[in-house]
Structures are given as C-alpha cells and as structure tokens.
Amino acid sequence: MNQQELLEKIKEAVMDGDDDLAVEAAGQALQSGIPALSILNDGLMAGADVVGKKFETGEYFLPQLMLTGRAIKAAMAVIEPDLKSGLAGAQAAEAGVVVLATVQTDIHDIGKNIVGSMLTASGFVVFDLGVDVPIKTIIAKAQEVKADIIGCSALLTTSMPFMRDLVDLLGAMGQRQAFKVMVGGASVTPEFSERIGADGTAPNAVQAVQLARRLVSQRRAEAGGAA
Ligand code: B12
Predict the structure, then answer these.
(1) Mind listing the pLDDT tens digit for each residue in 109-161?
(2) 83 CB contacts (<8 Å, ≥6 apart)?
(3) Which atom of ligand 1 is nearest to the CA of 69?
(4) Mean pLDDT of the 9-34 span
(5) Whose CA is closest to 40, among 106, 84, 91?
(6) Site to substitute for ligand 1 among 155, 160, 166, 183, most atoms within 8 A of C-beta
(7) 128: Cβ below 6 Å to ligand 1?
(8) Which domains does the chain have, with CATH numbers?
(9) Of ligand 1's atoms, which has the minimum distance to the CA of residue 106?
(10) How confident is the model at residue 83 (pLDDT cuts 50, 70, 90)?
(11) Is 201 in the pocket of ligand 1 (CB under 6 A)?
C-alpha cells in the first residue's frame, strides 16, 4: 500500500468509527514514513470532516459521531509520541503558562487535548480545565496561576460566541493586557479570531505550539518595554 492509500485507509477507519482499524492503519502509516502531523491532518481530521458533513446532511447520526471520536482518540495514542518528538528539538524549559479549556456549552475535547499535550511536550505548563467551562472560571484560573496565555477551544458555532465574551469580559475587567488569548477548533478562522479581538488562532496542534511561542515572546517583549 502506498502512502496515499494508507492515509485513505486511516480516513476510512475514522469515517467507519473503527478504532481497531484506525490504530492499525496509523501504525502502518508511521512505519511507512508518513509524518505524524500528516496522519493527523490528512487522515484523522480529514475523516472527521467527512463524518461531520454527513452528520449535517442527516446521513449520519450521533452514534457515528461518537464512534468517530473514539477512533480518532485511539489512533492519536499511536501517533502522539511522534508528534511530540517532532517538537522536542525546540523544547525550552518554562516556555510559558497556558490555561486551556473548551468553553461553556461545548464538550468536544479531542482537539483541545491534543493541543494541551503538544504544549506540554514543548515545555509549557498547561492547566487544562476540561470541557464546558464557564468563561469566568477560565479567567479566574488564569489570574490565579498568572498565565501567559488563555487558550479556548470550541467546535460548535453556538459556543464560539463565548470566546468573544471572554475577550470582552477581560476588557471590562481591565485585564485584557494581562493575558494573550488564543482560540481554536474546527470552525474557528483567523477572521473570527481577529473579529473578536483574540490574539490568534491555529488550525492544528503543531501550529498552536508555534503560535503560543510567538505570543509568549510578544508578551515578554511588551512587559520588557513597559518596565
Ligand atoms: C467527534 C465529534 C463529536 C463527539 C466529541 C467527542 C469528544 N470527546 O470530543 C461527540 C459525539 C460527543 C459530539 C457531540 C456533538 N457534536 Co460533534 N463532532 C465531532 C466531529 C465528527 C469530530 C471532532 C473532532 O474530534 N475532530 C478531530 C480533532 C483533532 O480536530 P479539532 O477538534 O478541530 O482540533 C484541532 C484544531 O481545530 C486545533 N484546535 C482545537 N482546539 C484548539 C484550541 C486552540 C487554542 C488552538 C490554537 C487550536 C485548537 O488543533 C486540534 C488538533 O490538531 C466534528 C466534525 C469536525 N469536522 O470537526 C463534529 C461537530 C463538531 N459536531 C457537531 C455537532 C452538531 C454536535 C452535537 C450538537 C450533536 C448533537 N445533536 O448532539 C453534539 C454537541 C455536544 C456539545 N454540547 O458539545 C457539529 C458542529 C456544527 C456547528 N458548526 O456548530 C460538527 C462540526 C459536525 C457537523 N458538521 O455537523 N461530536
């Protein structure tokens, strides 16, 4: 099987919600030399997109979404060590402190968990508050641990407005400059991030780490300038 066919096999395993096949195919793909990031983007997330679209059109139902989620999680366990080792070269101690959460009303956590684990592997201290987290709780934790970055995940268009509310609430509290805010999730675009006044977004976990590094440097430069 060539690399394209292996990626297709992963995508189909995700679409069928077949966790055994997803694990097997992810292992074969790694062995054949496909980078873990490509397995994530072109295999797992590509399959999730198809399932999402079929769910939208009424062809698939909730059980299929659940099985798809399970298959992605299972395959992630296979590729995660490689994803992390890809980042390890640039690892720095105390890269920064991140408070991470899926915002209120939303329970999707697979992508957030991957982002959290990649940040940890890159030297960030991550406080993962879980799913369905009220924005006030997120801000309170960020203040408590003196976070550099607040990272919010949301996959539902109905939960994304809470990210805007978080940025607005920080502003109303006079705390907007205290934290960098990064937002993400399948439907979050750079335009959305800019419109709500966040500091950036990233389409996948590896770019989320790059963004986090950039935001921490900016923050440290700003703090230096103000001193
Ligand atoms: C699996 C899944 C579920 C699982 C979730 C399991 C879990 N533990 O997370 C279950 C079955 C629970 C579920 C439930 C529902 N779901 Co659902 N689900 C999905 C599906 C198929 C895949 C999501 C996923 O895990 N993708 C894989 C991960 C790796 O990708 P990701 O999350 O995008 O994360 C990556 C990036 O976005 C980024 N990232 C993520 N977070 C962050 C954060 C930051 C700060 C940064 C920088 C980057 C970043 O990095 C990640 C890793 O590379 C999507 C379809 C899709 N295309 O996303 C629908 C989808 C998100 N679900 C949808 C819906 C409608 C629902 C339900 C309302 C269904 C229902 N009728 O009950 C419920 C909502 C429950 C709730 N209140 O939250 C819709 C949302 C539509 C919309 N636009 O609002 C989607 C898009 C499907 C669709 N097209 O209709 N779902």
Answers:
(1) 999 999 998 898 888 999 999 999 999 999 999 999 999 999 999 999 999 99
(2) 36, 37, 40, 114, 118, 121, 205, 206
(3) 1
(4) 97
(5) 84
(6) 155
(7) no
(8) 3-88 (1.10.1240.10), 96-226 (3.40.50.280)
(9) 78
(10) confident
(11) yes
